[in-house]
Amino acid sequence: NYLTVEQYEILLDTCLSHGYHDLHDFIVLLTMTGCRPVEIKNLAWVDVHLEKRFFIVRNCWSKNKRMMYKYLNDTAIELLHQRQQNRLGDYVFLNVKTGKVIGSYQKIFNKVKKHLDFKVTFYDLRHTYASWLVQGSVSIYTVKELLGHRDIASTMRYAHLDYSTKCEALKVIG
Prior knowledge:
Blueprint: H1 5-17, H2 21-33, H3 37-41, E1 48-49, E2 54-57, E3 68-71, H4 74-85, E4 94-95, E5 100-101, H5 106-113, H6 122-135, H7 140-147, H8 152-155, H9 163-170
Antiparallel strand pairs: 1-2, 2-3, 4-5
Helix pairs in contact: 1-2, 2-6
C-alpha cells in the first residue's frame, strides 16, 4: 500500500491541524528517506550530515544489521535544518520530558488516522517512497540501493509501477 500525493498532503495537514508537529516531521522524514520507523526514531544528530546531504543509519537499527547512508532531498534537508536549529538534545526526535529517544508516535498516529478516509501505516510511507521513485522513472537498481535492500528481488515488488518508462522504451524501436 502506498499513498498518492493528495493523500500524503491530507495526512500532513491533518497532523498539523491537530497540533502534532513532531508527528508531521516524523512522517515527512519517513516518506522522504524511505527509512523504517525505528531508523528515524533512533536518529542521533551526530549521524546527520546536512552539508553532505545524508545521514547514517547505524547497523544496530538497520534490518540487515549494516550501516547505511540515507541520502536527503531538499525537503528532508530543510526539515532537518529547522529541527536542528530548535534542537533540545542528542536525538532528532526526543522525548522532552526524559531527554531520551521518543518512545513511539503510534498512539497519536492512530488518533490522526481516525480523521482520514483512507488507511495508512508507518510502513506504508516506505512503500510510498519507493513507489514514487519508480513512478518517477528512477531505475529499480537505484531504488534498491536507496532502500538498502540486499537483494533486487525485494525491490521488484515496485517494478509494476514503472509503466511510463516501459512505454518510453518502446519508442526506441518505433
